[in-house]
Design goal:
The chain has 422 residues and is of the alpha+beta class. It has two domains: 268 residues, outer membrane lipoprotein receptor (LolB), chain A (Clam), CATH 2.50.20; 91 residues, TATA-Binding Protein. The strands form two sheets. It has a twelve-stranded mixed beta sheet. The longest helix is centred in the C-terminal third of the chain and has 19 residues. The radius of gyration is 22 Å and the shape is globular.
Length: 422
């Protein structure tokens, strides 16, 4: 039996926990979608089994329970099921990596975390995870006859693809900071569904309803269901449900349902979980004999060298200027936020006012062209004309004069935001 559906139990959570960081609440849709699309970490499509009887709890108390959870050790099996309404990104990720040349996370190495984890943005995947505090984590993606492992152990982060026998090695955040380097470039291995919950709850504010939606049993453990919904219309996100372990306060499952209906866009949860300390051997890694090892520092140095060469070429003529403009696509002038909460839309200006590259543009992989063509629709409005790229969660409008509008909002809401900015 679920907790009583009373105003106290299911009332909207208020107070310091939900209200904090209100200045950042416009990032709710982007933060959630970003996590879902790029670092899906741990997501099982395990159905709830049972409706256990648990003491009544308010949403505020449940959020505080999550925040107070001190469980730093666990291991388990997770299944990732993601349906963002986009084609598989596995091959596309590799094409972008090869086309981009050397660069952190985009060096063409099949063991690069940025390249491999992008595959989790579509389809269903089985993972194994082990966590022992902030210094040691391991995430393994199980394939058919192969395995990809991402291991963080102290000062080192290792990525290993057994299929290609390639290794990617980087310094962990802490070591970078201690050495005076650029900390934060290589984050530790993804954690648990708690990361999803933290992102959503940290940005919850006046435009968000947070309630308790009953109970569930996940991975054999009793849990409360925390339901997060936008109060506004126009968002592509219908609701977020977090199954919270009744005993430890650890999020066990994360489900993101689109407002358009249908199956969940992201369904994340443990199928097996153990809160005992994982064996130390889980976090030890030595490159196998004969494996190709890519060092992140060397990749970064090569990328900086190429950047300097492009800058020099740009100063010599029109051809060089074209290269400079292409390289500048990653260096946006900044984003202006239109609207608030779940309906927030980021407006970004591309340097040089470059619109969508035309078909057959030099340097654009064929798979990238197919990907863009599959998603893009021509739209017009007071802003002018442009191309709308749609997923089940995030929509983006690229205008012909080089502006980008992106948000977890419907097509009409996105066009309206572009018209308003115009």
């Amino acid at each position: 039996m679920a907790p009583n559906d009373s105003a106290e139990t299911n009332g909207e959570a208020t107070g310091t926990v939900v209200g904090r960081r209100k200045a950042a609440r416009y990032i709710v849709p982007l933060a959630v979608a970003g996590v879902a699309a790029a670092t899906i970490g741990l997501v099982p499509a395990l159905a709830d089994s049972g409706d256990p009887e648990l003491p009544d709890i308010t949403a505020q108390k449940l959020i505080e329970k999550i925040a107070a959870s001190d469980e730093e050790q666990l291991s388990g099996t997770v299944k990732v099921s993601t349906d963002l309404g986009i084609p598989s990104l596995g091959g596309l990720a590799g094409s972008f990596a090869q086309g981009a040349g050397a660069g952190p996370g985009s060096d063409g190495s099949s063991a690069s975390p940025d390249t491999k984890l992008m595959e989790l943005a579509s389809g269903t995947h089985t993972l194994r995870v082990a966590v022992d505090g902030e210094e040691r984590q391991r995430l393994s993606i199980l394939g058919e006859g192969s395995e990809y492992s991402l291991v963080h152990n102290g000062d080192d982060v290792w990525g290993y693809d057994s299929e290609s026998n390639e290794v990617y090695h980087a310094q962990a955040e802490g070591k970078k900071a201690r050495a005076g380097g650029k900390g934060g470039e290589h984050k530790a291995a993804p954690g648990t569904p708690k990361q999803f919950a933290d992102e959503a709850l940290a940005a919850a504010g006046d435009t968000t309803s947070v309630t308790v939606g009953g109970t569930a049993q996940v991975a054999g453990r009793d849990a409360y269901k925390l339901v997060i919904k936008p109060k506004q219309s126009g968002s592509t996100i219908g609701s977020i449900t977090v199954a919270v372990d009744a005993s430890t306060g650890v999020p066990l499952k994360f489900t993101l349902a689109p407002s358009s209906g249908g199956k969940a866009a992201v369904d994340a949860g443990f199928t097996k979980v153990d809160f005992a300390k994982p064996d130390a051997s889980s976090f030890s890694f030595t490159p196998p004999k004969g494996a190709k090892v890519t060092e992140a520092d060397e990749v970064q140095a090569e990328a900086e060298k190429k950047g300097a060469e492009q800058k020099g070429a740009a100063e010599k003529g029109a051809a060089g200027k074209a290269l400079e403009d292409l390289g500048a696509l990653e260096d946006f002038k900044g984003a202006n936020v239109i609207g608030e909460g779940w309906n927030a839309v980021a407006q970004i200006e591309i340097p040089g006012g470059a619109g969508l590259p035309t078909q057959g543009s030099e340097g654009m992989p064929a798979q990238a062209e197919q990907f863009l063509d599959a998603l893009g629709d021509k739209v017009t409005g007071d802003f002018g004309s442009g191309t709308l790229f749609k997923t089940r969660l995030v929509n983006a409008l690229l205008t012909d004069d080089g502006k980008v509008y992106v948000g977890a909002v419907t097509k009409d809401a996105l066009v309206k935001a572009a018209d308003t900015a115009k």
